[in-house]
Amino acid sequence: MAVLSKIRQRSILLIGVIGFCLLAFIVGDIINHGGFGVTKNVGSVNGTDIPVKEFLEKVNNMQQRQQGATATQAANYVWSLEVEKILYNERFEKAGLRVGRDHVLDVYAQMLGQNPQFMNALGKFDKNKFNEFLVNMKTTNPQQFQAIENEKPDIESSAKKQLYATMLKASYFTTNVEGKARYAQESDKATIDYVLVPYATINDDQVKVSDEEITAYMKKNEKKYKAEASRDIEFVFIDNKPSAADEAEMKKNIEGLLVPKVVYNEETKGNDTIPGFANAKNNEEFVNANSEVKFDSTYVTKKQLPLEHAQQIYSLAPGQVYGPYVDNGFYKITKMVSKKPGASAKASHILIGYKGGSLPDPKITITKEEAKAKADALLAQINANPASFGQLVRENSNDQGSLGTEGVYDDIAPNQMVKPFNDFIFNKPVGSTGVVETDFGYHVIKVLDKYEGVQVATIAQKIQPTEATADANFTKATKLEMDARESGKSFADLAKAEKLTVTPANGLGANDENLPAVGSQRTIVKWAYANDTKTGDVKKFDIAEGSVIARLKAVNEKGLLPLESAKVSVLPILRNEKKAELIRKKMAGTTLDAVSKASGATIATATVTFANPSIPAVGPELKVVGKAFGLANGKTSGLIDGTAGVFMIQSKGIEKAPALQNVTAITTRLNAEGRSNIQTKLTSALKDAADIEDNRHEFN
């Protein structure tokens, strides 16, 4: 039955693939010609359309450049770029902003500034070298040249954005008056006596907050609690993993490869004896016939072997076998084939660069002759005092990549380093020191160790469920789907009966794809947003790791936050407002002493600053600190509903900071703070103010 089921599944899959291809052909033609009312735009920004065809081409190009990125990740990235491009182009047009060739080359300099191919003798980006490279490429590699030309508009846009941001930064200025005001906020100190009755003195169950009150509060503060459309789902994941019996059977099967086996030979009409793995004459042939991972003849070091089993494998004599063992989801058995010395090395070095060399460091000013003399002097110091090597690295080496390891490079493979360096560490015995010249400068080298390489033959068989287990898991998932649709029982109860966990995924956006525990599942999100999917609907999705049975819990339209999401932040606010009403009744009186006696709270003292509106041992209290700086000395406030509870304060005076004669340091700091991340802040502001129509979910 299981075999027939799989044949049926594959037939359906084949029909589905053919149907999808036909549909893709038809839909592609519809989109290209705008037929059947299908939009040709993936969205618009302030009335400027983003065409589907160009958008999808850019998404495809992005996926090709960023290997491993999902279609949704690429689409979201491209969308962000397209929206920003339109918004900034509007600003550029209003400002009459244009950029020249030098501005564009500055952007290339940022992208390619560390490429030695385009550096001058001072380690700086050389525009002439880059121009020469482009001219040569136009002749030698027209395709690559055209690719660079196609990217020019984006490079020019980047140049304009940088220039525009520079103009904005230049326009941001802190006056001396503002500097003095900030100095006072940071340095003036207000001292107060206060009485505090915390909200925590009233139990939560003593006050009731209704859903209607939460909704009314959100409507009153609509900007703060606005939300895009979203979906809430819950799902069960049935992992199609092998059972304990499956794993035991797999282990038994792979163990069978260790012993001789008699098989019938159709050609000779007799029995043949196939030797076990340890006695196999042709290791490559034996591995490839029995393993899901092909034979690899490469010699490896101990560090390249599976971490938990490296010592046992590395210690094998040629011909010996280790295993079975589990590694990265596979049952494996490994045979030692052979060993050879010097497969990799460990060495430490100090690099002394010189002006005009290949090392891109403008701080290097010494000549080649001076660099050689310095390297020889360091070598003499090291030979006299070997323990000084690490300190000499930190004080002298121009190799930034090895400063953190005191110049050490470990497990160096042959030909990994430039030839003179490579030849020294592999041809000299352990403990040798010397000076070697390369294009980067002079290296003071010490050979620390050499590692023996091993060639192993490994049979690896993936641990996976048997067909019976896979069928049982499939049946279990299908039953849960059908019961959830037809039984009338709650999804949670049905899952609990099967000892399955229900996972919530709330607030899914139209362009989201990730679900907790199961990762990228764009198909499920699209189902939740489909017009024919209704609240309460259940559907099973077969994924690589098993099955997901999803249920749509709620459809949240664009507007206010969903009630359950809003409760996290709004409920404590409204609850504290009601607690404040009860607390105020206890805090009778117009003086601190009277309020203290009436409420049972003690009088405390605190010194605060306006710039840091926080009360020691209490926490942030903006209203209270603000009132402290507004009260005359000796005056008492009314009751204040603070963050932690209800306060009454009495001013003990304000200590003014000494007059500041020069505010340059403060205005400079405020200018830096205001100008930081100005482009990010501008982009966010432009998006908030824009009219953006987003139809991405229709095409992804």
From TrEMBL:
Pfam families: Rotamase_3, SurA_N_2
Record InterPro entries: PPIase_dom_sf (IPR046357), PPIase_PpiC (IPR000297), PpiD_chaperone (IPR052029), Trigger_fact/SurA_dom_sf (IPR027304)
Subcellular localization: Cell inner membrane
Origin species: Flavobacterium rivuli WB 3.3-2 = DSM 21788
PANTHER family, sorted: PEPTIDYL-PROLYL CIS-TRANS ISOMERASE D, PERIPLASMIC CHAPERONE PPID
Keywords: Cell inner membrane, Cell membrane, Chaperone, Isomerase, Membrane, Rotamase, Transmembrane, Transmembrane helix
Stretches assigned to the PpiC domain: 342-449
High-level lineage: Bacteria, Pseudomonadati, Bacteroidota, Flavobacteriia, Flavobacteriales
SUPFAM superfamilies in the cross-refs: FKBP-like, Triger factor/SurA peptide-binding domain-like
Transmembrane region(s): 12-31
Membrane topology of this protein: Single-pass type II membrane protein
Family: Belongs to the PpiD chaperone family.
Alphabetized GO MF terms: peptidyl-prolyl cis-trans isomerase activity
Name of this chain's protein: Periplasmic chaperone PpiD
An example Gene Ontology CC term for this record: plasma membrane
Origin superkingdom: Bacteria
